[in-house]
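Record type: ASSEMBLY
Status: queued
Input:
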Amino acid sequence: MKELLSGNSAIARGAYESGITVGAGYPGTPSTEILENFAKYPDVYAQWSPNEKVALEVGAGASIAGARVLVTMKHVGVNVAADPLFTLAYTGVSGGLILVSADDPGMHSSQNEQDNRYYALMNKIPCLEPCDSQEAKDMVALGLEISEQFDTPVLLRVTTRVSHSQSFVEIKEPSPRDLRPYAKDPLKYVMVPAHGRLRRVFLEERMARLKEYSENSPLNFIEWKDTNIGIITSGISYDYVQEVLPQASILKLGLTNPLPENLIKQFAAGVDKLFVIEELEPFLEAQIKAMSIKVIGKELFPSYGEFSSALIANSLAKAGIDVAEEFQIKDQAGKEAAATAEPLPGRPPVLCAGCPHRAVFYTLKRQKLVVSGDIGCYTLGSLSPLSAIDTCICMGASVGAALGMEKANPEMGRKTVAVIGDSTFMHSGITGLMDVVYNGGTSTVLILDNRTTAMTGHQENPGTGSTLMGKPAPQVDLEGIVRAVGVKRVRIVDPSNLKELDQAIKEEVAALEPSVIIVRQPCVLLKGTVISEPVEVDNDLCINCGVCLNLGCPAISRQEDTVSVSAIQCRGCGLCIQVCNKKALKKRGEQNA
Amino acid sequence: MLKPVNILLVGVGGQGTILATRILAKAAQDAGYDIKVSEIKGMSQRGGSVVTQVRLGQRVYSPLIAEGNADVILAFEKMEALRWLPYLKDGGSIIVNDQAIAPVPVLSGAAVYPEDCLERVMKLAPNTIVVDALNVALQCGNPKVINVVLVGLLAKKLSIDKELWLNALKTRVPEKFIDVNMKAFAEGYNL
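Status: finished
Output:
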């Protein structure tokens, strides 16, 4: 039976079919749906961990205990998990272990564009790159075999376009899932220096065997056609190349670490002109050039951004290569001109109507504070008109960065706050806060506690009271954690009261010791959140001053003489009522306050 | 080999493009096509623009449609129709829902919504079909079925049997909403 599945759903299906019984990860676009889908299959265990490092450690333990394992994360998550990964490469596995790294060329929803194939190179572990959903599923099954045969974790590296595109997948029945028996083996699993040195040699032997495997693997194959042009490619670029150059010979690499040197040499010798077409970094190209093979790559195709058939066609056309008819440059000038006659207003993402974070950023901006930001929905507080965030680096960075600002410039520290979401705080903000206390910082940290992992679509976390499998769970006591690391000034504020919030921030920023404000209100999109009556405008009182527009609420718009509030969009949070100086806004059915 | 048929669905988060895509994909699957669908999610839930690319054919490689190669653009919002116009093939059709959804820069007064976007689209795309899908949906009894009204219009542009569309609707729409959606599809199909 064939089903139309996204790459992420196909990976989950592949995990189920090939006997993976334990899955762990941390949500992050474009990887999130893999584990969400996997958790729905019968007789499997899946969990969100507080961060990617823990997820991979859970995976390592499950593998050592004999299970086949899936660990998922976005590309930057692998940075967090890199510590266990580098040594897991030494210990190897018992049950097969697949680590999915979902990279994001084009940075659709990421802070950087790193090419995680280099992790495979650096760790000396196999790297698999699927081009579509069927391959994504097949590579889980084959990856597990490689993992167990060669005693290694396997990196399954997908990209946004593979994760979020749908294509047909052949569905099979799941295979039996017996645990491998556990055997105590300190030489393999206790990585003290003496044992590590032994495994270091094993790493080289394993790579040599993997290289041989790579030469004959069904994942690496040549499609001979016209030999004037040869293309070496991997991942989604393979699909583009087939469209743009239907007559060219192709060497398609599915196992891209280690590379099949002999196969590459054989292919290079059989074609007149050789190109490497790969998204992001010259990962294949640099290694192929090191084989003394003449090849054209990044001088023609960019090493940043997302590829497409059109981009590849345009680059090839510049080099005088004939491309398929539909990709030859067309005269779209008229349509382009119409669409860009004057720049069309963009449609940036925005904090939702009724979002509890809005009050925080409105207040921080008004108090002219330096805001050390973090990763989540609330990063949208950086956009106009709120424009209230000064930095955003990585998960958890807000707290440490605020301390650094203070240490470099105490005066700046007097007006600096860190903002971090509840899930992000548990991911990697706690250690930063410990640092603030330990090293005598006076920062104010605002934990924006909306009771969920909102940006990626409401995943459970240790604070939500339930698990990925839908089971009830103990809730982390944020206030208790904050006190336990030594913060004495801790308060919980409801952001729907703007005055109270304003006052709390003023007082805590003024305090000469570390302080934490837990700004607590559930995400407005969360099931069960109470939606109150929408706000209405009294046109007689509204002077169209625009103060409420500074909130950047998508429900409020400027009309000719007044503002208007969309009754469909408004969630009745009442924030605009609080900022209006003319008392022109009120809840439907209520008198003016 | 027949070239794939390229369909671009453009709109704003929350307009129901994803369900429309699911109905289209099911009908095309039952008609025996190879299909690729590309949906970039992420920020779309927060009011960003949403673009879904659907390609049908004997064999489809890339999930992406190149500029100037869309056979049909189904635009759920009229400024998005103008934004994506360069993707339309010469002689291609564009179906536009005559609805304006102002983005935040417009709401706050920082930018101006181009009032003439329909005219600009029609001037360059002779096969423009404009429909007030919200009005049609309201007549059917539910403003949310805008997407299925548009799917009805799209159905006439593609060589997939009507029966397969109706079956796709039945399998992809929650049971209690089937009647209103069937009505919406019929209205769109017969426009």
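Annotation: Chain B has a mean pLDDT of 92.
Annotation: The two ends of chain B are 33 Å apart (CA to CA).
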